Amino acid sequence: MASYLQVENISKSYGDRVLFEGISFNINEGDKIALVAPNGTGKSSLLKILAGIESSDRGGDIKFMKDIRVAFLDQNTTFDPKRTIFEEVYARMGNLSPEIGEYEAALTSGDERRLERAIAAMDASGAWSIEQNIRQVLSSLKLERIDQPMGELSGGEAKRVALACMMLQNAEFLIMDEPTNHLDIDIIEYLEGYLQRSRCTLLMVTHDRYFLDRVCNTIMEIDRGRLYTYRGNYTQYLEKREERYQNMQAEIDKSRNLFRRELEWIRSTPQARTGKARYRINAFYDLKDKAFVNLATDSVEIDVATSRLGRKIIDCTDVSLRFGERKMLDGFSYKFNRGERLGIVGRNGVGKSTFLNLITGALTPDGGTIELGETLRIGYYSQRGISFKAGQTVLECVEEIAEVVKASDGHTISATTFLNRFLFPHESFNKRVDILSGGEQRRLYLLTVLMRNPNMLILDEPTNDLDIMTLNVLEEYLREFSGCLIIVSHDRYFLDKCVDHLFVFEGEGRIKDFVGQYSEYREYIREREATERSEQRSNAAPKAKPQQVREKRKLSFKEQRELEQLEADLATLGDERTALEGELSSGTLPYDRLTEVSKRIEEIISLIDEKELRWLELNE
Q: Over the stretch 292-309, which tens digit does the pLDDT of each residue have?
């Protein structure tokens, strides 16, 4: 299989903080790789080095296969706010298609020969169809108002425009940094299917575990500045990673036993140490380094008390809200209960965040009432992220809220200890908040929300920019949380773990209450859509005219033998197809074999269709 990318000896550090050093790896055609690591360990930096946006410290070598196209999706793409969606995408396509740029320049030059050459080049490259392709891709991403200015778009809509720009490049190699951030679940599932079907080679960073599991066939992990590669999906990675740690721990235990024996030798007869073998003394110090490696991984520790919560939490009665002609809520009534675990889902722009602003008092409804309980203490983690003053340090930001925090067992801990538990070491306390990474700012924001000891937690897209390790800890905490919990999230795995019923925002102010997890809701929707399609086909099918029942003719001996052979052939072809599809899904086939298997599967499908048709004729 062709090597698309070779990376040798690249490093990155900021000041005295080393993210990774001297790492090398190879990516082959067809690899779909997810890069995982805790926040602040260099995932985004590595992607930007590969994309040419940042450079490696102390040299290194990055080689892409000649003539392959590489597309990079950054976490945050900067757009011209005055351009429309179509103009923005088209402008970026112009940069990618020299034929379009030359054609536009020739039009304004007045040079007829140049224009003729440009038109010929447009014909040869098929550049005339670019406009149609743009419209199709934007439509598939549910961007229908292509004349809308970029400055008016929500975060989710802007992310979809960035995805459209990437998809239209038809690149063989995709580099994607958190592609699912800010997208609604429908678009995530569309992107998931697109990447599963695509033959592109992929390297991405994502925290969405369902997305990662279903798209990727390889996991790369940055651990203590080194890179480890695991073949398989995320579930298989967890198993292999645990096996690697067990093997490493066995080696450390072995080194410690040997170290104790060597320590006795090195301490014996100190006066004669100059006579000891120098190579053995050097080996002793190497052994000491190996014996005292600590495999323990730092993880966030969430231990905060939940304030007492009375019977009355939030009572909504006949609540309505409009923004101009848009109906956000229409006669909504609901009483929140203690211990409730609610997930909120729906397309971007249907009013999920608006609903949260209503129940927290940031917005006033047009009609109806919202009553809050006297003991209610809301912890609201919003999409906007942490608010801080210019130049404010990490410690100042926390101590502005409280200098001590009440833990779950009733005792108090200092703000500095609480920071340590959220992986902010002492040397980071005087860091300015504005220079923290996106993930570190999100972790600090979560800390400031929880340290207020809320009894109702409202989390609006909490998984954006949090690494998988922190999400695992947060999920454990939320499962034990005794107050009322409301989560707006596009992370299907997170919803399945943390909530037991859903508010489904359907648009036009309608909210459907679904009892069950998100995966159960999606299965319910698929079954309902399949039933509707079946009914539509039945209604559309012409009514057969009543006919006289015709007596079935007996098969001749030759036809009977043909029928038996068809059944045997269909069984053999079915088994061969299953085996070949298994080979394809393994993700380990070389390119030549991949092409051969794909062609054979097409032939088998054609043969099966032909033989099934003849089988039906004989059975009739």
A: 666 556 667 888 888 888
